[in-house]
Amino acid sequence: MEANIAKIEKLELSKVFQQLRYILNRRHHINHHIDFLQQCKYHDVIPKFLVFKLPSVCNKKQIQTILLKKEIRRQFKESGIVDTKLKFFHHFLNKRLHYIEYHTLIEQLEEDIFYSNYNSDQRRRMKLKRLIEDKNRAIQKLKTPQDNLQQGTTLSYHTFHSRFTNLSNVTFEQDEVEVLNLGHKFAPIPNTVNIDRTAVSLEVQIRNNPNYDIMTRELADTLTTFKDTRVRVCNPKQYLPNKILHKNINKIQKSISDNDLIMTKADKNAGLV
Predict the structure, then answer these.
(1) DSSP at 143
(2) Do 60 and 129 share a domain, yes or no?
(3) pTM score > 0.70 for this model?
(4) Same-domain check for residues 146 and 191
(5) Which residues contact 66 (CB under 8 A, 6 or more apart)?
C-alpha cells in the first residue's frame, strides 16, 4: 500500500484528479455490468457476448450458464482491484485537501460520470429487456394451445359459415341442422350393401369400355370376395352414430315431403338452401 501511495505522490495534483476520475468511471462501468450480469442470471437469459457456436452434441445452455457465472466472478474481482486503488487516492487526497473539499470533489465527479454514462446505461437496460422478451417469445412458441388455455388466455379459432340456409317457415331440430350443414356433397355410409345392385351399377359404368371383358372378371372376383369375407359391424361405438345419422336423414326427408319443401344446392361452398 505504501508503494502505491508513494507512486501517487510523485504525480501532479491535476494528474491525480484525472486518475481519480478514470477510476471512478471504471467503478461505475463495473458495477453496472455486474448488475446486468446478475439480472441475466436471475431471469435465466444469456447475453450475446457469451453466445458461442458450439457443437450440437454439447449442452449449450449449461456451458453458457457456467461462462456467465465465471464472468460475474471476474467482474467482482476487478471491482475489488478498483476499490483498492480508490483507497490509495483517498489516503493521498485527504492529506492534500480539506475534508469538505475532498467530498465536494467526489460528489461532482460522480455526478459528472453518472450523466456522461446515462445513455450507455439506458442501452444496457434495453438490452436486458430485449433478452427477456426474446426468451418469453421462444417459450410461448413452444407452448401448446392447452397450455395457453390453462393460463387463462383466450384463443380465437376460425369458424366456418353454416352451409344450410332455411328460407321456409319449417323449423328443423338441432340434430337435423347439423346433418344439413354437412352440405350436399356429404355421402353417409350405408347400413347395408346390396351386392346385386352394386354389380349392376358397375356394369352400366364400364359397358362401353374397350376392356369390358377384363374389367368384368376383375369386378366379379372383387364382389365375390367382398360378399364372402364381409363381416357386419357390431361395435356400438361405430354402429350407433351411423344409425342415428340415417335416422335424422329420414326425419329430414319426411319434413320435406310433409311440408312440400324444395331443397337445392347453393352456388358456392357446397351449401343447401
Answers:
(1) -
(2) yes
(3) no
(4) no
(5) none
